[in-house]
Amino acid sequence: MASLFPLPSVVNNDNPNPKKYTAKGRYHSNLLVVLIAMDVLGVFVMLMGLRQQFHQQGVLPETIDGPYAGVMMVVAGVMLTLPFFIWSFKASFRPFGTLNK
Fold first, then answer.
1. Were 99 and a residue from 9, 11, 28, 80 both cysteine, which residue would form a disulfide, CB within 3.0 to 4.6 Å?
2. For each of the chain's 101 residues, which pLDDT tens digit applies?
3. What domain of life is recorded for the organism (predicted)?
4. Is residue 98 part of a domain?
């Protein structure tokens, strides 16, 4: 029975294929772990860039230290945190309990 109602119990579709959901759930849980790891790494790179920019003695050796090394590290950290931010922003507009797309 096809319906536009979002709850499967109302339209009597309460027998979903369990393999279909576990495979998608496993894929999205791995994706979530990768996104969180990228977010943590990005915050760490941003903090190192801020220290490099505003502290007398930065974290980079003198051979690779440039005039805007701290700014470049902050920009790289922001780029690393963007995928998790975008994914979580999109997830806030999805129906509760759906992980696909």
1. 28
2. 455 555 555 555 555 555 444 455 555 678 889 999 999 999 999 999 999 988 878 788 888 888 888 999 999 999 999 999 998 888 888 777 666 55
3. Bacteria
4. no
Contacts of 68 (CB under 8 A, 6+ apart): none
Whether 69 is in a domain gets the answer yes
- Establish if 73 belongs to a structural domain: yes
Query: Taking the model in full, what pTM does it have?
Result: 0.65
Distance CA 95, CA 75 (A): 33
Does some domain include residue 53? yes
Q: How far apart are CA 50 and CA 72, in angstroms?
A: 10
Within 1-101, where are the H helices?
Answer: 18-54, 69-91
